[in-house]
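New to this. Please check this record:
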Amino acid sequence: MWKAPANIGLKGGVQPKERVSDTLQGDYNKQDKPLNLIRVFQGTDPLIWGARTLATDTDRWRYVPVRRLFNAVEKDIGRAMHAAMFEPNSQPTWEKVRAAIDNYLHAVWRQGGLQGSKPDEAYFVQIGLGLTMTQDEIDDGRLIVKIGLAPVRPAEFIILQMTQDMASVPA
């Protein structure tokens, strides 16, 4: 999911109507027009050339692999947090949630999805009173986790904050 869908050959005889030059490709990139053009180079099938999203308001979501990684992480971590829904909103539950998320992100890092030579350069997970939640939020049944991921460069984190509404279970 974190590999760019770029430089992939198109099969089946599909050919672009017009060839795209390096200059035209560069012009589009300079104008912040994120197009993943189909390019033909000497001796190759047509290639998908680029891995940009349509997001132009932020560098965070500029590239398809970063967006896909975060979509998957949000979905998977959301499931892990949902599993804690009927647990007390207390330190033991927070530690279980933190450990589950940490194990998941460690696997993503080991598989090459996050950058850094050590886990703490690739990701972090924070949860707890005074760290991600106030006492009022805990009392209101909100479990809040803050996650930082480094998908492009070590220790350059994109931050996610995820909230799970907890059932009314006494702590």
In short: The helical segments are 22-30, 64-82, 91-110, 119-122, 135-139. Residues 33 and 54 are 8 Å apart (CA to CA).
